[in-house]
Amino acid sequence: MGSGTMSCKSYITKRGYYLAYDYDEKVGGEFWFLLLPLYGNNGERFFYVKDNFNGSFTVEGECYIITNKEALRRYIADAGKELKGKPVWYYHTDEKGQIIRKEKSAP
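RE: above sequence
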């Protein structure tokens, strides 16, 4: 686990996480990049969001690189249980990383 970023056209996620698939021989072939919300105060879950001003956004959260399909299923199932019925917050940041706006998604 670590911090990671992902570029996307829309930063709002209905599942509460972001998932991307890729293939690279350096990591052993196929892998999935899973980005989960960070933990905040009082159990709040959130992502940092930066507008790239080119029609895309960079989203930062808790990152996992997963190479095993069964492990991926477990991570997704656990995330689904943990996030079910809870809102996800999006902390919009400026170019200096300062939070300029907070946005809450419906559970």
